[in-house]
Amino acid sequence: MAHSVKLKAGDEFPEMTATLLDGSEVTLGKPKGEANWQAVFVYRGKHCPLCTKYLNEIESYKEAFAAAKVDILAVSGDAKHQLEAHLEQLDISFPIAYGLTEEQMKQLGLYISLPRSEKETDHNFAEPGLFVVNEHGDLHVVDISNNPFVRPEQGALTRGLSWIKKPNNHYPIRGTLDY
């Protein structure tokens, strides 16, 4: 049985891009604006009602992320037309990208699922993942799941990131011991 490779805390975040609806490429893990960190939320796709709810919930914490100088980006393996249709159910103002390839999903160490039917979706898709990339381009926080109902709670996440980033707390990247 083949084993997936998981990114480790402290690793340099891999160079990869996805596409925004305007056709421009966005580099995952590269914060924009005033932010010096970026939270990359990988979601399953339009077919997942829990993802829709989660993405809308992220929007309600957008100011808390901004206060912590953490940029937000969401991405899935959906195609452009699927993201366009999904936007009808989303009330978000942060960037959302499409076209994450299966190879990129593997590079990120995400769990990948087969669709249960063509009605669900027409491609293999990533299960949820969160990658928080610090100002050095390193993976500071990693959270991957094999199902859509286990994800970080946004309040705890934003409070934790705000605390981690305070210089006087001297909080290192956790979970770096190899075994």
Automatic annotation (TrEMBL):
Species this protein is from: Vibrio breoganii
Protein name: Redoxin family protein
One Pfam family here: AhpC-TSA
Residue ranges occupied by any Thioredoxin domain in the UniProt entry: 7-166
Gene3D superfamilies xrefs: Glutaredoxin
